[in-house]
Amino acid sequence: PNSVSCNKQICASVKNGNINEALDLLSAVEAKYLETGNVAIRPNVSTYTLVIKALSKSEVNPQRMQDVLDQIDALNDITTSDNLRIDVDCVCYNAVMDAWGWSSAPDKVQRANKLFHRMLELYKSESNLQV
């Protein structure tokens, strides 16, 4: 399998309304990549965007969406090559900020604001111009 076939499998789970299965598949793909180092199966920005957008449509649980963003950061932290970094785009950040904004969490404004400043920091540092 490669990232395209993995994305298709995750997409099929999302289309069937099985978000938990999609999240499990994402975790399995991440684990396989970390275990083998095979960059062909490494999740990419499309993988994460698909999952975050699916979460935003199926349930407004900002913490689950935030967890996906944090997974990307964790994967980027152990990435030694710049061309393997996952540059999350503004679609993902905006979806998570929107979810925080509509949530009933008492710290929703602070959480959304923190993401906004994270986007600005990435943009200003030119490490991710997709935000």
Q: Can you walk me through this structure?
A:
The protein is mainly α and 131 residues long. It is built from 6 helices and no strands.
Fold topology:
Layout: H1 3-15, H2 19-36, H3 45-58, H4 62-77, H5 90-102, H6 108-124
Helix content: 55-70%
> Helical stretch count?
6
| Span between termini | 29 Å
By helix and strand content, what is the structural category?
Answer: mainly alpha
* Estimated share of beta-strand residues: under 5%
What is the typical, i.e. mean, pLDDT? 87
Question: Could you give a short description of this structure?
Answer:
The protein has 131 residues and is mostly helical.
Label this structure with key terms.
131 residues, mainly alpha, 6 helices, globular
